[in-house]
Amino acid sequence: xxxxxxxxxxxxxxxxxxxxxxxxxxxxxxxxxxxxxxxxxxxxxxxxxxxxxxxxxxxxxxxxxxxxxxxxxxxxxxxxxxxxxxxxxxxxxxxxxxxxxxxxxxxxxxxxxxxxxxxxxxxxxxxxxxxxxxxxxxxxxxxxxxxxxx
Length: 150
Known about the structure:
It is a single chain. By secondary structure, the protein is mainly α. It has one domain (25-145). The chain contains seven helices and no strands. Helix 2 (25-46) packs across helix 3 (49-60) and helix 5 packs antiparallel against helix 6. The protein is globular, with a radius of gyration of 18 Å. The protein starts with 14 loop residues before the first helix and ends in a 5-residue tail after the last helix.
């Protein structure tokens, strides 16, 4: 993490606070993404939301659309849990990035605004997943306890 110089700040007295909190940023971003994904996946895996989600795969012409919907549910629920705990963070973040790109550009495009079932939320989540992919699990993760990280 970058060390913030007090002389660059409008309120130099905040440099110590910023520097002490900065290492928490990757964890906050990773956990937030995971907590957003978990309820989406829960509905697909444990409730009946996979049937509705499978319509997108029918529209793509993919075989086994219900299986794809359950796979997405597994990614969202279990991958979300893995992000929260910081386990295999980069592979999960890569999978979420791909998922959000497909949702954004194959399902929701060209609508942008949320009032039009737009893609702005999926694009944002994809960018957050890219950030997590680049940063990794961070200091406060199960990945951080391993000798090597993917």
